[in-house]
Design a protein that fits this description.
Elements lengths: L2 H31 L5 H20 L2 H16 L2 H24 L1 H12 L6 H11 L3 H16 L4 H24 L4 H34 L8 H34 L2 H37 L3 H37 L3 H10 L1 H22 L3 H26 L1 H27 L6
Helix pairs in contact: 1-2, 1-8, 1-9, 1-11, 2-6, 3-4, 3-7, 3-10, 3-11, 4-7, 4-9, 6-9, 7-9, 8-9, 10-11, 10-15, 11-12, 11-13, 11-14, 12-14, 14-16, 15-16
């Protein structure tokens, strides 16, 4: 392990811990409402969490766009631009958040129409939505701050924030539900309190560690310069459209499984949890790619960039091999841990071999996404996602009548694999020889 490996791990490991703690926020809420005496409470939290996960995922460009541009500015030692990027990103995140709050009524109607919750779930889901929507400024502001911290090569602060949010969520939700006698309102308020606690901690740590730099650089040059704003929106536009492609594929994957019945839907959902767990690890190395490759590109350090790229792919290969081996040997026992439904476990035996292919199929795309974000080559991400999404729909539509749910998994594997392959060709032919270091 050399110096570059240590740099990668210093960024990747805290990010992996942060990623693993994120699902706990939703799981805590489900665990609390699961003891309220009605399945409608569980359904309401599931619907509410799905709505906000989808909405915030669409605005993930606030994190990714900020990360890449900040790491490049750090490589150039342009501290004024580093400061201005943070101000721009937070300003835009607040603008979007307040837009969501103003439009919350039509947004709720649209989401309920898309998800179609049952009549007994709607009142509780509406209560959850009406409270948690006010956390939009905190959540989107955190996206900007998290991206900025990653660009500054600091993933320890995002890790601390994620851990603290979970602790606050547990304590506040339990207190509001079991001490103050609230039900859905208590769970929603606990989530809201955790969101703002995370945002406040992010600001406190920002002032604690970066106050001097921010104060010294804030007034150096215009913050909202037209050319810089246009570049920011161009980068984020590509990431937003790319995210739309990902959302379309994921929603269709769920909907197509649902059309095959509740057992297939449940089986697919349980099996995809294994891919999500793999993604938590690979995202950590993608974040390292964002931070380090962006910094090397900003510094015009071609040798350091190439070495970082090689090391990233070595780590990705090692992680992929480990997960592939574990899933080949133990994927069915893992499914049995995730569910005790006999029909779901029995059905998983038929489709479990697709899980073995998920790490190998998806690994390339994770690393390339990180690299492309770091050097702000977002057009390549958009093109690869668009073409791969088309392939996904074509394969499924062509084969679904013959292969059923196997066609859905085949389409998913092709989608993941093609994203990585297209990005590899895009980088080799259109980036590495045209981007000047």
């Amino acid at each position: 392990m050399n110096h570059r490996d240590r740099q990668i791990l210093q960024i990747a490991l805290p990010s992996i811990v942060s990623n693993i703690t994120v699902p706990l926020l939703g799981m805590i809420d489900v665990a609390i409402v699961g003891h309220m005496g009605s399945a409608a409470y569980i359904g309401a939290v599931a619907v509410g969490s799905m709505i906000f996960n989808l909405v915030y995922w669409l605005f993930g460009f606030l994190r990714m766009g900020t990360s890449g541009t900040t790491s490049q500015a750090l490589g150039r030692r342009d501290f004024a631009e580093i400061t201005h990027l943070l101000v721009r990103s937070i300003s835009i995140s607040f603008g979007i958040a307040f837009g969501l709050i103003i439009c919350q009524a039509p947004l709720k109607w649209l989401m309920f129409w898309l998800i179609s919750p049952t009549a007994d779930v709607i009142p509780f889901a509406s209560t959850y939505f009406n409270i948690v929507i006010w956390g939009a400024p905190a959540m989107l502001g955190l996206y900007s701050l998290m991206g900025w911290y990653i660009g500054m090569q600091n993933t320890r602060i995002p890790m601390l924030i994620s851990i603290m949010q979970n602790v606050v969520n547990i304590l506040s939700s339990l207190s509001l539900v079991y001490v103050f006698g609230m039900k859905m309102e208590g769970v929603a308020l606990g989530t809201l309190i955790a969101q703002y606690s995370g945002f406040i901690l992010a600001i406190v740590l920002l002032l604690r560690y970066y106050r001097r730099m921010l104060k010294a650089q804030y007034l150096r040059g215009p913050i909202f310069q037209k050319s810089q704003m246009l570049k920011f929106f161009q980068i984020n536009r590509d990431i937003f459209l790319r995210t739309l492609c990902l959302v379309a594929v994921n929603l269709f994957f769920t909907a197509a499984g649902a059309r095959n019945g509740a057992i297939i839907l449940s089986t697919n959902a349980v099996m995809m949890q294994l891919y999500l767990f793999f993604s938590y690890f690979m995202d950590g190395f993608a974040y390292a790619g964002e931070a380090l490759c962006g910094r090397m590109y900003g510094a015009r350090n071609r040798e350091g960039f190439s070495e970082t790229l090689r090391r990233l792919f070595r780590w990705a290969t090692a992680v992929t091999m480990i997960f592939s081996a574990v899933y080949i040997v133990a994927s069915l026992p893992i499914v049995e841990i995730l569910t005790n439904e006999p029909e779901v476990i029995s059905t998983a035996h038929t489709f479990i071999s697709w899980v073995w292919l998920l790490p190998i199929s998806g690994a390339l795309a994770f690393i390339w996404d990180g690299v492309f974000i770091g050097i702000t080559a977002t057009r390549g991400m958009l093109v690869s996602s668009f073409i791969s999404s088309l392939l996904f729909f074509i394969v499924y539509i062509a084969l679904s009548s013959y292969l059923g749910n196997h066609a859905l998994w085949l389409a998913q594997i092709i989608y993941l694999l093609s994203r990585g392959i297209i990005q590899s060709f895009w980088f080799k032919n259109l980036i590495y020889h045209t981007y000047r270091f």
